[in-house]
Amino acid sequence: MTLFVLCFLLFLVGLYGVITRRNIIKIVLGICIMEYSMNLFLVLVGYVHDGVAPIITKGSERATFVDPLPQAMVITVIVIGLATTAMLLAIAIRLYRKHGTFDIREINTLKG
Amino acid sequence: MEYIIGVLLILMIAGSIYTLHAGDLLSAIVSYGIVGFGLVIIFLFLKAPDLAIVQLVVEIITLIIMIAVIRNSSKEDLQESATIKVEGVQYVNLKQLLYFSGAVVLALGLMYYFYQSVSGLDVFGEHEMRMSQVYVEQGAELTGSANLVTGVLLDFRAYDTLGEATILITAVVGILTILRIKGRK
Amino acid sequence: MQSDKGMTIIVKKMTQVLVGIIVLFGVYIITYGHLTPGGGFAGGTIIAGAFILLVLAYGDDIMHLRVTKEGSSKLENLAIFMFLLFAIPGLFMIPSVFFRNYLPLGTVGELLSAGVIPLFNIFIGIEVAAALFTIFLAFVILKEEDK
Fold this sequence. Notes:
Chain B has 185 residues and is mainly alpha-helical.
C-alpha cells in the first residue's frame, strides 16, 4: 500500500513540474516523469510474492509465475513514450527557432 | 523486498524534485537519469527482465536526444525569484506563493481520492490472476514459446503490437514534418 | 583514418571493435526471443544503439547520410509491411482469425518452434531499430530546408 502511495507521489512531482515551471524543457521532463510513474504502477499491480520471471525452463513446472500481462503492455508503452517525448522536443525546437527563447510566458502570441 | 523498492522510490522522488529545480538545463537532464536508471533496478526486483532491457536502452537514447536539443540553444534556466524588492524593503512574491499553494492543495485532493480508490485493490504481492490464469497455464501449449511475455505480446495480443508499430511510424513522419527535413532533390 | 570530424582516434578505434559485438548481441536477443528474456523490442533498441554509437563517433559523413535517411525510413516501412504480409494468411484458414499462428509449433524449448513468433520478432526488431535511428538522425544530423 505504501508503495502505491509513493508511486503516486512521483506522479504528483511530475504534475507539479508541468504546472509551475516556466522553461519548456522542464515541462517536457515533468511529462516524462509522469509516464514513468504510471509504467511502474502497472508492473507493481501484477507482482506476486515469491514468484519467478514468467519464462518456462526445465525446472519450473511447479513454480508460481508473476503476472505476464502487465509486463507485455508496459513494453510497448515504454517505446511509445520515447516517440512521444521526441515529438514534444521537436515542437520545442520549432518554438525556439521562431521566438528565440524557451520561456512560455513570452511565447503567448498566436500570430506569426 | 518492499523496503528496498521503497528506498529506491524515495531516491527517485528526490532526484525528480532536484531535476525540476536545477539552475542549469544540462544538470537537470543529467539528474533525470536518476529516475530512469532507478526504474531499471526496480524492474529487476519485480522479476521483469524484458522491461529492464528496454527501459535501459530507451533511457540512454532519451538522454542523447535531449542533450542534442539543448546543445544549440540556451542552456541556462530562467530564475523565479521568491522575494521581490520594492523600494528597498523585501516583500514575498505573492503570485509565486499563490501558484505554489494551489499546487499543494491540488496534490492533497488528488492523493485523498487516490487513497480511496486504491484501497479496493489487492494488497501488494497477493495479486489474484483472473485474466492471466489461462495465459500462464496453457500458454506454452497454445503458442509453443517458452517465454510467456513474448507469447502474450505476439500471439494473444498481436493487435496491440500492430498498433504500437503504427504509432512509431506516425511519430517518425510527424517529427520529419515538424522539423522540415530537406529531402533529396 | 585521420579526419577532423567526429571524436578522437581512441574513441574511433574502440568503436570499430565494439559495434560488431553490440550488433551481434542484439541479433542474439531477437532470434532467441521466444526462449529467453528479450524479444523484438529489446533487440531492436540495442541495434539502434549500436548505429547511434557509430554515427556519434565518426561524425557527419559516415555512410553518406543523405542516402541513409531515405533508406532507414524506407526500411522501417518495408519491415512493417512484411509483418502484415505474414499475418494475413491466417484469414484464409479455418478457423479464420487474423494473426493466427499457422506454422507448425514444435516442442517447447527448441530454437525452431512457436510458429510465426520468431518471424514476427525479426520484423519487429528491424522496424523498431529503423524508427529509433531515423528519430536520432532527424534531431542531430539533418538540416532544415530553406524557406
